Amino acid sequence: MARLLKGKIVADALMEENRKTVAELKEKGLCPTLAIFRIGEKDSDLSYEKGINKKAEEAGIRLVKYVFDEDVPTEEFYSKLDQANKDPGIHGILVFRPLPDRFNDDELRNMIDPSKDVDGCNDLSLAGIFINKNLGFAPCTAQSVIEILNYYKIDPKGKNVVVLGRSLVIGKPVSMMLSNLNATVTICHSRTRDVEKIAAKADILICATGMMESVNRNYVNENQTVIDVGISWNENKNKLCGDVLFEEVEPLVKDITPVPGGVGSLTSCILISHVIESCKRSA
Amino acid sequence: MARLLKGKIVADALMEENRKTVAELKEKGLCPTLAIFRIGEKDSDLSYEKGINKKAEEAGIRLVKYVFDEDVPTEEFYSKLDQANKDPGIHGILVFRPLPDRFNDDELRNMIDPSKDVDGCNDLSLAGIFINKNLGFAPCTAQSVIEILNYYKIDPKGKNVVVLGRSLVIGKPVSMMLSNLNATVTICHSRTRDVEKIAAKADILICATGMMESVNRNYVNENQTVIDVGISWNENKNKLCGDVLFEEVEPLVKDITPVPGGVGSLTSCILISHVIESCKRSA
Fold first, then answer.
1. How far apart are CA A245 and CA A78, in angstroms?
2. Nearest residue to A168 via CA among B133, B71, B152, B6
3. pLDDT class for B127, splitting at 50, 70, 90?
4. Which of A6, A156, B87, B239 has its CA 20 to 30 Å from the CA of residue A173?
């Protein structure tokens, strides 16, 4: 039986920190503020927003919502975004992406002021991770992986870490962050040969391909920590599943994050932490 | 006996390309131009400059030199740099670093317009490599490694590549570039455990720690391609040496770059290629 690396307890600890810091900032007359940009009423957006609402309220930070109709002209959207960039009272900006097709995602990501890019999506934020320099913020999911390891005292220093997936949202940034923490990182992807053999030698295995239940017994070893970043709806099992075939892998490894209840439990807390950090930096 | 991956033949092929492209650009009335910024008369700077002079002449590109006394005020230096940034007739800017201590290297690197950053030293250039997007240019040494593999038809796709070293000049960018080319990349560094064992399993081993002759027989295998990025002066042997203990390793591997005469033979050609590419992009 593996130790379950549950996310909630990590989130609770982070939120405790967040509340304290917000109280301190408020004493100085500062109120960390997040601006949310949403177009339309997509279920996934509304569900994420609900989570953020709750955490924002818990932490005592302020939310400003910019909500637009599906047919909002791009100029109008960009002009509001520009306003939020310039507003010294706003410390973080989150745009629910993907936006409708008429928006150029690359242009949009880079319109957000890096110092307010609390979900770490623009080029300079990503550059900061590569360079190991505070240019913006890390993508929240990548940061969540680091926070879980940190909370459970699994020090990546000197460990062999295998990352499955090289996306800009998680695989690449988490690889760099772990290398910066002195892990020896191997980045695997769809073209990797013998991926099972490589993965099975890892001390820490980060699963971030988005391929549901693809990581099975062949990828793991009994001393391994498995961090499952995936989250997909399994039609057959009628429940959320990760990239790991949990019931097969869990008995074979040392530590594993559950899905749901693992990495995903942290992302909105991390977002809030970034808003608070941005407010501190701006003070 | 390993195949020697000599740099000169690769450089010659690149220069042939460069000459053709410059001729085409000149027919359109464009002349690729590189601005060099140098403070003082350091031997290493002068030697690199001499190499660039020769290659620039061969390719038919124009050089503009900004040479300053050791005691140039920082404002004067920055103001000239700003001028070069804004001058549409200048396509590439190379600053011989490190500058004297009163200059902030980080600030300096990022003052160069990314579109003219032909040695890939500023944050956005590095971000471009991480994101796999043409924001600036790759560091010339990292690009040299890729060109050598390419010339000798050693396709990194699906190969296990081990990179020794994680510097921003070579280790990190070359890791990302090779991952973008579909290699499975492991980034090793001073904190890596069992580095010899990890290296010995690589199909391609990139040696970029700067630790002279540190890579010995324990790091290699008979099917391995070894790329040696190091270049140090060996006092005992009274000659230039790489990171690889050449006489021991060479008989044991499939391919190896010599030092000198390997990676280092390409860097000034790559610099010229970047200036030409920048001129093409600006047209």
1. 42
2. B133
3. confident
4. A6
What are B197-233's pLDDT values in tens digits? 999 999 999 999 999 999 999 999 999 999 999 999 9
8 Å CB contact of B123 and A129? no
| Residue B186 contacts A where some CB pair is shorter than 8 Å | yes
Strands B232-234 and B239-241: antiparallel
Tens-place pLDDT, residues A21-57? 999 999 999 999 999 999 999 988 998 999 999 999 9
Do B234 and B259 contact (CB within 8 A), yes or no? no
Distance CA(A218)–CA(A199), nearest Å, equals 8
How big is the A-B interface in CB pairs under 8 Å? 90
Burial class (CB in 10 A: 0-12, 13-18, 19+), B174: buried
The ipTM of this complex is 0.93
Strand pairing report for A255-256 and A225-228: parallel
Chain position carrying tokens 């810091």: A21
Does the pTM surpass 0.90? The reply is yes
List of domains in chain A: 31-113 (3.40.50.10860), 140-265 (3.40.50.720)
* Of the partner residues A124, A182, A185, the one whose CB lies closest to the CB of residue B127: A124
Residues A217-273 pLDDT 10s? 999 999 999 999 999 999 999 999 999 999 999 999 999 999 999 999 999 999 999
Segment A100-129 shows an average pLDDT of: 92
Could you give the CA distance from residue B213 to residue A34 in angstroms, rounded to a whole number?
53
